[in-house]
Write the structure tokens for this entry.
Amino acid sequence: MVAVRARALRVLGVALAILLTGTLPLLADAREIYGQGLEAWEAGVYEEAARLFTRAVAEDPEATGLLGGAFLRRYTPHFYLGLSLAELGRCREAERALDESERQGKIKDRDLELLREARRECRRKIAATEQATEEARKVADDAAAVAFEVARLADTPVLQSVWEEGEPSLARRQEEATRLLAEARSAIQRGEESLDPDLVAQGERLAREAREKLQSLLDDARTRRDDLLPRVRERLAELRELADKTEREARFVKSRFSPLPKALAEIVEVTEASIGLARDADEGTSLDLIDQVEKELRLALRRLRGAVQAPPELLREAAESFLGGDYRRSLELLEEMEPEDSRTREQVCLLRAGARFGLARIQEDPEIDAEEAVRRTVASCPSVPELELPASYFSPEFQAIWSRAVTQEVSRGGTDGEGSDEEPRTDESPQGDS
């Protein structure tokens, strides 16, 4: 029996040795850190105290009885961690630590009252900050709603062309107010996280200022829009009137010259596309775009008219003489002409070159160089002709010589019709119906 008891004691001793060597250093470390935390607490160094009590909780979270040494206090790391955090204003963390300390049941008497008082104060600060944050966010949300209306107005075509105008411009005012609102939201967020009512109040003041600036901007933008709308409506009426006029002329051309020659059909197609753009314009169209559409429509109308307008009488007679083989008479008539528009000047140049080429071929004089006659005629033209030669009126030989002469003149740096606001025409005859 004695041997059995001796053996049992040896086993118990080994087990205790293993247990003590495995846990006592850990507990000693936790209490040493806890003691350092108490020193920092007593000195009012709450940041350091919170750091040390956090470490003690990590080493040994359970509260125990009295400690020896310099501090005759219980080991209650959650309690002092909560008090330290409360002093730092980190009340949400403090509340969790104090709740855990009370749950462990080692806090008594005066310390228990201190715990409850610290927790009440933290809950009061949390509630006050949450209320202030809610009110401040409402102001910021109101400002954001006004900012949305401002942004929506800024995107309307009628205001896009003027949003950057003035000093300060509407765009700059929008940018400054938006930046102010962003600062307000940041201050409110930081104040809520740190439970700092003063910082939340600062954020609310910034939000109110942003809202006032945005509301003033919104009012001014609406006034500017209302001032511009009558002008937009006036320009739309002018554009629609021009579209109606152009559409009537396009319908006439399609009925009068049906089936349309290829060149004329292309001009009519472009004209109808311009009419469609004009029809699509409305009060949401910017003034700049209305001006651009009108310009394109007027250009299309001018090209349409130029393609079908009747030629001057002298030019018609000169063309008839040319087609009849009376090249001298054609040249005489052309000499009498003083055309004002660039298109007629180009047609005079073409007929003159064709007549001189014809004379050179009829005379069959080796001294007369037909190509040189065409080249000199092109060189003497006020501008480099851009006409398409109708194959039915001019021989392949003349067309080839004419093309070389025009190309040479262009490479030489000849004029290109400066001073004329008319587009090149693509008739299928020298001029109109001739």
Remarks:
- The chain is about 75% helix and 0% strand.
- Residues 1-26, 415-434 have pLDDT under 50 and may be disordered.
- The longest helix spans residues 197-256.
- The two ends are 145 Å apart (CA to CA).
